[in-house]
Amino acid sequence: MSAILNVQNLKVSYGQSEAIRELSFAAQTSETLAIMGRNGMGKTTLFKALMGILPTRAGRVELDGKELTHAESFRRVAKGLAYVPQGRMIFPTLSVQENIETGLENVKVKKVPEEIYALFPVLWDMRSRKGGNLSGGQQQQLAIARALVTNPKVLLLDEPTEGIQPSIIKDIAKALNEIRKLRQICIIVSEQVLSFALDVADRLMVIEGGRLVHENKRDEVDAQLIKRYLSV
Which among 41, 164, 170, 180 has the fewest CB atoms less than 10 Å away? Predict the structure, then answer.
């Protein structure tokens, strides 16, 4: 089966400092992939490069067989790549409904699908409330909902559990598993919480110093080894 997302020998630099070093991986439709690593190891840099927010020095990015390596961010979204950044970046003065509707810009039907509110019932209850008045966990659900209405083939989630209480983390894991089943999309999360990664991911990779240093299927994961990579 051909990969929906194919990344080959990707290099990303900040000035003279190489942040991503010849990194390669492939992800399949209906697969959830967790990319794990400590802060500063390159997870966010990788996601920003995949979205075209950061330029790449070398390498190739393909989505569904089409090259995106030098495409602008909005073109990547139109081709089926969606991104929920670290910190969520919702619009605090817009209502929940208006926040979600900002994702409908390139979609033919300008209406929030009912399944979005079915996945995140709290957003339906709070649809008239300003985004800035939601808790961190509710804002994370809002950011995921906004990304989903673009009808992505691949959904990138950067540190989705950061600053969120454990009960909401469980809700987000459940929603992501449901999304993958309903939409048959590829989900890639960058993460430091191993229990969450094990709840959602088919494969776990570890990034260190901008390189992939470890990879395993969920049922073959050596939890102690990954914890050593994640410990400071």
Answer: 170
pLDDT tens digits for range 45-68: 999 999 999 989 899 999 999 999
CA geometry: angle 189, 42, 206, nearest 5 deg: 60
User: Which percentage of the chain shows pLDDT scores above 90?
Assistant: 67
Q: Of 1, 79, 67, whose CA–CA distance to 59 is shortest?
A: 67
| Rounded Cα gap, residues 106 and 82, in angstroms | 12
In 3D, which of 30, 21, 29, 28 has the Cα closest to residue 49?
21
What are the beta bridge partners of residue 58? 11
Q: Which CATH number is 183's domain given? A: 3.40.50.300
Rounded to an integer, what distance in angstroms lies between the CA atom of residue 198 and that of residue 103?
29
Q: How many domains does the chain have?
A: 1
- For residues 96 and 112, give the distance between their C-alpha atoms in angstroms, rounded to a whole number: 11
CA 41 – CA 111 distance, rounded (Å): 39
Task: Give the domain extent around 213.
Answer: 5-230
Does residue 16 come out as left (phi exceeding 0), alpha (psi in the -120 to 50 range) or beta?
alpha
